[in-house]
Amino acid sequence: MSLDTQGILSAVVIAIYVPVLFFAFRISYKYGGLREMGWLLLCLFILIRIVGGALLVAAELIRPAVTGLYIGGYALEASGLSPLLLCTLGLLEMTTQGPDGEGKRGLAFRMLHLLGTGALVLTIIGISTTSSSSQSTANTERRIGVLLFAALYLALVAIVVVQWTRRGQLMKYRKQLLLAISAALPFLAVRALYSVLSTFSSSTFITSSTSSTSTSNSDNDLAKFNMFTGEWQIYLVMEILMEYAVVIIYTVAGTLLPLNQDYKLQESDEYPLYRPQY
Fold first, then answer.
1. For labeling, which of 22, 115, 193, 234 is most exposed (least CB within 10 Å)?
2. Rg of the Cα atoms in the chain
3. What is the pLDDT of residues 181-233, one digit of tens each?
4. Quick check: is 36 in a domain?
5. Which phi and psi (to 5°) does residue 51 adopt?
6. Which residue numbers delimit the DUF7702 domain (predicted)?
7. Does residue 154 lie in a domain region?
8. Residue 216 lies in a domain
9. 213 forms bridges with which residues in the sheet?
């Protein structure tokens, strides 16, 4: 059986992310794996995109249709924004680190991580609910989840602005990392907007037994933005390309920026940052 447009795009996603995964793992290992959650979440996002794409491709090729493959693929597809936003949050937290390696405003970052996790849980629950009697509640959960994603994005913008106002206090290469995050924000904005438009494009999210998700009560003005039944060109540009641009920016930054050199510069500098001057 041949793939439809959604299946072809899923296959393309697998193809473009598999090579990047290698570099993402190298970056995460370079910076201590679990010690720097930003890079670890970048790896997680790429894995989600690869696995989600594989599930959707398999769902179209396997007959008779397996509903669980569609549900799993769509859940990963729709919730992938969460680890990308949380990855950005983790990288922003790195820019607050001083020579002691400790980040500033730890409580605020932890609260935002909880916000992103809560949005992810609501989104997955809303998508995974297939009972028609629970569709109204599921739709509400999905919409609350995506609005929380939007709120998290706005919080990221606010943190970036704050960090630029105190750029004189940032270590050299963390300032360059902040520049990379700032460059990624416009792409993240388009991606977050697409999630909102897609989620509000229909009042139900029902997995069909055929080749795609069927929706009902679609808003005619927003139907073209639906992630699964809308125009594939919009989906390609506003989701796939925007996400890939962010991932490439972070991967290049992680590969090229010698962030660990910040500590060596501080040790060798006669007047390092954060040390009392007399």
1. 22
2. 20
3. 999 999 999 999 999 998 888 766 554 444 444 444 445 678 888 887 788 89
4. yes
5. -65, -45
6. 4-257
7. yes
8. no
9. 207
pTM above 0.90, yes or no: no
Write the CATH number for 12: 1.20.1070.10
Query: Is 212 inside any structural domain?
Result: no
CA dist., res. 108 & res. 102, Å (int): 14
Q: Is the CB of residue 38 less than 8 Å from the CB of residue 94?
A: yes
d(CA 224, CA 136): 22
E strand residue ranges, the chain: 206-207, 213-214
User: Residue 217: left if φ>0, alpha if ψ -120 to 50, beta else—which one?
Assistant: left
Number of domains in the chain: 1
Domain span including residue 176: 5-96+106-203+223-260
